[in-house]
Fold:
Amino acid sequence: MFRSRLLCLTVLAGVGVGLLAGCGEEKPPPRVKFGAAEPAGDKLGLQPEPGAAVALSKWPDACKLVTDAELRAFLPQSKSVEHKPVKVTILNFNPLADAAPGTTGDVPRGGCEFEFNLPGNGGDDVTNSNFTVTVTALADPALVGTKYREDKGKDGSEKGFKDLAGTWGAQDCYSVDGVLGAEVTCMQGPYEFELRGSSHAEGLVLQPGSDAKPSENLAAAAKRERLWTDKVLSQVARTVGARMS
Structure:
């Protein structure tokens, strides 16, 4: 609930005439607008050998998987965008063979957190929203498919599991609701990647007032998380998946 703000009441000295300079209520920030993904980047073009994983030195920079222009296609009000690399550690997921040299270990830019500002919460320079893209496998699609199905099978028993199939543009995706929002896992050809994110922008979902019941606050938080998943992470998946096609 937005606080009322008394603007002013000016009395002209020597005349004694009260002039109302302006009284009004603080306006809420603009509502967040959502658009659709417009993938525009080049294809990554990596083609793993049959039965093999791609050397980590050849993995893509996750911070280049979504450009600022692509971000603004589905969040046109986003400002002050920052790309923060996230280190990813890759283990051998092929139970039938030892990992080839250079295919396991750390990938300094295998993931990326995209931070930015949306309407509300302190001005244009405040980052109140984010999503993270993490590449978790890059290998022969047959190997990645096996890994993905195993991951999906394990997570399928979790509360809040949702099979998204191919509705998000990638070959297959699923989500699991967590404490901090949904975690999404997708497969696209030789890639497996994960998405997560959140936003505290006031323009996303109006917060209940200070006298709200706990159930009302929980309902608002759940609505915020679901909206971010359905309207934002879905478009991130379409953008990233198109580059991996």
Q: What stands out?
A: Helices lie at 68-74, 141-155, 214-244. DSSP finds three helices and nine strands in the chain.
